[in-house]
Structures are given as structure tokens and as C-alpha cells.
Amino acid sequence: MLFLKEREERLGAKIIYRTFSTWYARIGHEKREYGVFLYTDGHTVVFEDFDREPQLLGIPLRRKAKEKYEKLEVSFPVTAIRSIERVSLSDASDAFDRGRDTARSAGALARAFRKLATKVVLDDGTVMFFELIDHKDFERRMAEYAKENRR
Description:
Layout: H1 2-11, E1 17-26, E2 31-32, E3 36-40, E4 44-48, E5 55-56, E6 59-60, E7 73-77, E8 81-88, H2 89-98, H3 108-113, E9 116-122, E10 127-132, H4 135-149
Antiparallel strand pairs: 1-2, 1-3, 1-10, 3-4, 4-7, 5-6, 8-9, 9-10
């Protein structure tokens, strides 16, 4: 719980929602194959990653000299979210690789048979993808927090 207390002190408010994204990408910026921790106080959404040593079957491997870990921490106001939709994880990965948003909303068939990512588009045009544990809960909560902040 010390970890959460430290995050609350940095945020300056109590964390009311937190989740983990097992895969993350922001078009034109970075991708994290091992995910990010995402949390909010209802006003600001923050996500960050942690240094993760390379492993093979649970056995730590030496990091290559050219591989240097750089801490990722990004935040944005909840009210800056323009849209949230679910897309296939392969579309999200392809959009990241192309450097532009080509990911289309996942249809019923894709939702049933493919891995999904949550696409978040901000007012400034930033496009991020998160492979969340519970897509629906994230969408619901972000809409709720945005509505509360606009009152």
C-alpha cells in the first residue's frame, strides 16, 4: 500500500480507480509490450511503467548494452478524452507501426474472437491503445468522471 500512498501524494488526491494494461501504445511515441499501471483521482488520468528485466521462462537475462530503460509516465485530464472505443489488438499494433490511426472499431465478430484494445483519443489528437483487464468498466468510469468534471 506504500506504493499507492506515494502515487496519491504525487497526484495530490486519493486514487479512486486503478487498473493494469497488459499492452500499451501511443501513436508517434512509445509502446510497452509488458504494460502500464493506470490510475486516476477522477480528474487526472496517469499511467506509468516500471523497469522490467528481460526474462526467458522466468530466468533473468542480461539486458543488451544498447537497451536502456526509460521511465514512462504520462498524464492527461479526464475531460480531454474525446472518444473511447474498442479495436482489435492487431489493428492497434498496426496503427502504431504505421504511425497513424488506422484502427477501426471492432465489430461483433472481432469482439467475440479476437484480442481487444481500448483506443483512447484525446482532444489534441493523441491516440493511445490499452489492452485492459476490463474494457467496459474503464469506459464507464471515464465517462462518469468526465461528466462530473463538466458540472
